[in-house]
């Protein structure tokens, strides 16, 4: 194909409209026409790109696998410009750039870039805009991937945390249904016993004693077993059903209270009274257990809503740092329990609010605290503190893990760099964290040695510097 024809093809591309013909001629003179079949890799993952390409026909795609399978992050179509661009600091693509169909490309090697910048100023200006758009697209993709990875971690931890109270609720509800039927039977039996007013008064006093909150310390399993055995022996002596021992042992009733009941009732009347008291207390205990489990589920859901700022999708605002840290710790509680970690939070009551977006700031806390939990050994420790320093709020997250290797420190914030074992890290978290903080003129630094790694985050105090209302404790 003649050079003039190739220049005509470039001039006909809508995305190159406005580029002077002499610049297009220069590109053709210093470029090579390549025709490749579908599947050919234009730029391998991680390998430095040395050429700029103009796609005359066809389609190029790049897919990136960050732990959840390959995902399309960018495509180039006929007329698009890609590859290495002037002024770009790109080292290598995060995934293979390959042809999705038979394609024609005009490629220009980077050794021609210095001359191209002077000879093709209009085209060079176009590549600068393309470079900015490409960086923005990859940044958006990275942030979305990091959010999805964080969501996966949260989902796993919350599923574990929610499973226990949810199972307790289901189990308690089934037992409560059976207990209600037993309580109805006990009420009918007591009514049929024809108790006197004096006996009824004694039965009510015993039931009230059962419903009181047990005083003193929590009983150990051995103490509870001994108490149940003592009540069972008492029931045997009074010819009553020993099945009442377990529910009565869970209450605050004493043997003296039972003796008082036995002085005014006996035989079938005593048995009916004990059955009514035991089933009533058991039913109430089941309802209390269900309430506690449901409250735990509600608290977890509330923590997730606050963590994600579901009810507030606005832009930057005044953000309570302490509340965000506490919400983050709540959603990571399962992982902390698994590590048997000690996590201490130290925040003064008068800490001012900062200027940020709450959901994104919580993403920062999640990345840093989750990394610290990964780094510490079993029964390790994490100390989180926040203080005002001049016009900034400074948050320090310190762990007692083995530290970051000195050779890794210069690259710790580089995208796709991770010190975690293969398959356990994407290398996105700290890069995303720094980018999010810089949106609000914040910053992050790290110092590390064996036994102490400290990430320090600084954020601008919200104008006015007013302290937030006192936050609840967890």
Write a compact overview of the structure shown.
The protein has about 475 residues and is of the alpha+beta class. Helices cover about 50% and strands about 20% of the residues.
Description:
By secondary structure, this protein is of the alpha+beta class. The protein contains 13 helices and 15 strands. The strands form four sheets. The protein has a five-stranded mixed β-sheet with strand order 10-12-13-15-14, covered by helices on one side. A four-stranded antiparallel β-sheet has the order 1-8-3-6. It has helices at residues 3-11, 21-30, 113-119, 121-192, 197-211, 221-237, 245-249, 255-264, 267-308, 321-331, 333-339, 358-375, 429-438, and strands spanning 32-36, 41-43, 51-57, 59-65, 70-77, 81-83, 97-99, 103-109, 317-319, 342-346, 354-356, 381-389, 392-399, 443-449, 452-460. The longest helix is centred in the N-terminal third of the chain and has 72 residues, at 121-192.
């Amino acid at each position: 194909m003649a050079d003039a024809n190739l220049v005509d093809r470039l001039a006909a591309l809508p995305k190159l409209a406005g580029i002077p013909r002499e610049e297009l001629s220069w590109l053709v003179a210093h470029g090579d026409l390549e025709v490749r079949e579908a599947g050919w890799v234009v730029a391998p993952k991680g390998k430095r790109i040395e050429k700029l390409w103009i796609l005359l026909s066809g389609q190029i795609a790049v897919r990136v696998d960050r732990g959840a399978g390959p995902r399309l992050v960018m495509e180039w179509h006929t007329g698009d410009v890609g590859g290495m661009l002037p002024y770009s600091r790109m080292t290598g693509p995060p995934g293979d750039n390959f042809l999705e169909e038979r394609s024609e490309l005009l490629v220009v090697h980077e050794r021609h870039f210095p001359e191209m910048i002077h000879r093709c100023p209009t085209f060079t200006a176009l590549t600068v805009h393309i470079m900015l758009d490409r960086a923005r697209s990859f940044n958006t993709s990275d942030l979305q991937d990091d959010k999805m990875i964080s969501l996966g971690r949260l989902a796993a931890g919350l599923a574990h945390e929610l499973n226990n109270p949810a199972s307790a609720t289901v189990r308690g509800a089934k037992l409560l249904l059976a207990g209600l039927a037993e309580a109805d039977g006990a009420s009918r039996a007591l009514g049929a016993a024809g108790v006197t007013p004096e006996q009824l008064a004694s039965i009510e006093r015993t039931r009230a004693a059962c419903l009181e909150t047990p005083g003193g310390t929590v009983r150990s399993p051995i103490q509870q077993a001994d108490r149940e055995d003592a009540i069972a022996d008492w029931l045997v002596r009074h010819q009553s059903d020993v099945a009442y021992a377990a529910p009565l042992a869970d209450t605050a009733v004493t043997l003296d209270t039972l003796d008082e009941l036995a002085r005014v009732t006996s035989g079938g009347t005593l048995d009916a009274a004990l059955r009514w008291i035991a089933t009533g207390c058991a039913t109430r205990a089941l309802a209390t257990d269900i309430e506690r489990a449901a409250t735990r589920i509600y608290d977890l859901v509330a923590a997730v809503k606050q963590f994600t700022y579901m009810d507030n999708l606005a832009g930057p605002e005044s953000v309570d740092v302490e509340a965000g840290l506490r919400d983050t710790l709540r959603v990571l509680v399962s992982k902390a329990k698994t590590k048997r970690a000690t996590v201490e939070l130290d925040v003064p009551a008068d800490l001012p609010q900062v200027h940020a977006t709450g959901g994104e700031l919580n993403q920062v806390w999640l990345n840093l605290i989750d990394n610290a939990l990964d780094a510490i050994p079993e029964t390790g420790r994490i100390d989180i503190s926040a203080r005002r320093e001049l016009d900034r709020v400074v948050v320090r997250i310190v762990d007692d893990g083995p530290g970051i290797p000195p050779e890794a420190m210069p690259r710790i914030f580089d995208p796709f760099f991770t010190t975690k074992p293969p398959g356990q890290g994407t290398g996105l978290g700290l890069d995303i964290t720094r980018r999010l903080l810089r949106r609000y003129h914040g910053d992050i630094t790290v110092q590390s040695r064996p036994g102490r790694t400290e990430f320090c985050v600084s954020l601008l105090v919200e104008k006015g510097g007013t302290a937030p209302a006192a936050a609840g404790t967890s």
